[in-house]
């Protein structure tokens, strides 16, 4: 069974602060997106990577990827993204050729995911799961709050979910292609991850162990951590 990876990379990266679109920001001198593409291509299971570029940046992303070496066995397609992550993933799925029956969806903003994590996700889909997410236990206790009555007012806490049953989930998330396509065709509410859309179909999503280095680069401090992880790898 052939496996493709869709990489949504069309976001601006507002939380990272001013600068180039997040996926094009440098990490160890190389754009974050290139790290993310390599992380997928490093898995022997993955033979196609579909990059979803900023809407006006598909040409630039194509030349960028042409300029960086990838394993020979990996094909790369670049398509323009949309206004939301969901829309961008949908555009990537629409561009998938026939013959790829397993699809990974991986954030460009998780450039350092280890190949073992990618392989574990693929393997769980091959073993029959409709949807798979890498997941980690939480370090922090999580509170559910009521929205503040007015800006600046305190937010009353309404519940403390049992932390031992909560997980932070990462990408790549892995899917039977037909299931993910159906989810994107039928689920219209805002969901922040693809597995969440599959849950809305009433299907079971399973977890595999995530990895600390698969963290998402979201805020400036995450870039500091990512640079440190990369420097440690290069020792
Ligand atoms: N993404 C996308 N298309 C969008 C929005 C997001 O392809 N319209 C991608 C981002 O490029 C990123 C991934 O979805 O790789 C995860 O999103 P996030 O970390 O939120 O990135 P941004 O949306 O770019 O960041 P921010 O929310 O801070 O603007
Ligand atoms: Mg975002």
Automatic annotation (TrEMBL):
Pathway entry: Isoprenoid biosynthesis; isopentenyl diphosphate biosynthesis via DXP pathway; isopentenyl diphosphate from 1-deoxy-D-xylulose 5-phosphate: step 2/6
EC number(s) from the headed UniProt entry: 2.7.7.60
TM stretches of this protein: none
Catalytic reactions on record: 2-C-methyl-D-erythritol 4-phosphate + CTP + H(+) = 4-CDP-2-C-methyl-D-erythritol + diphosphate
Pfam families: IspD
UniProt site (Transition state stabilizer): 15, 22
InterPro entries xrefs: IspD (IPR001228), IspD/TarI (IPR034683), IspD/TarI_cytidylyltransf_bact (IPR050088), ISPD_synthase_CS (IPR018294), Nucleotide-diphossugar_trans (IPR029044)
UniProt GO molecular function: nucleotidyltransferase activity
Site (Positions MEP for the nucleophilic attack): 163, 216
Role noted for this protein: Catalyzes the formation of 4-diphosphocytidyl-2-C-methyl-D-erythritol from CTP and 2-C-methyl-D-erythritol 4-phosphate (MEP).
Name this protein carries in UniProt: 2-C-methyl-D-erythritol 4-phosphate cytidylyltransferase
Upper lineage: Bacteria, Bacillati, Actinomycetota, Actinomycetes, Kitasatosporales
């Amino acid at each position: 069974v052939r496996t493709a990876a869709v990489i949504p990379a069309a976001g601006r990266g507002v939380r990272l602060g001013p600068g180039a679109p997040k996926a094009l920001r440098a990490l160890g001198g190389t754009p974050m997106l290139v790290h993310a593409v390599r992380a997928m291509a490093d898995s022997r299971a993955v033979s196609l990577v579909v990059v979803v570029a900023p809407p006006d940046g598909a040409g630039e992303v194509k030349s960028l990827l042409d300029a960086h070496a990838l394993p020979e066995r990996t094909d790369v397609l670049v398509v323009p993204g949309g206004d939301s992550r969901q829309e961008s993933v949908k555009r990537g799925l629409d561009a998938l050729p026939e013959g790829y029956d397993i699809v990974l969806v991986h954030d460009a903003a998780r450039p350092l995911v280890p190949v073992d994590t990618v392989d574990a996700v693929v393997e769980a889909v091959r073993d029959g799961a409709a949807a798979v997410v890498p997941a980690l236990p939480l370090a922090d206790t999580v509170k559910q709050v009521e929205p503040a009555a007015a800006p600046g007012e305190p937010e009353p806490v309404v519940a403390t979910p049992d932390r031992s049953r909560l997980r932070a989930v990462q990408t790549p998330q892995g899917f039977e292609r037909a299931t993910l396509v159906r989810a994107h065709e039928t689920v219209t509410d805002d969901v922040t991850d693809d597995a969440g859309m599959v849950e809305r179909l009433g299907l079971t999503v399973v977890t595999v162990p995530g990895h600390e280095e698969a963290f998402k680069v979201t805020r400036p401090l995450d870039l500091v951590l990512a640079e440190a992880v990369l420097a440690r790898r290069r020792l």
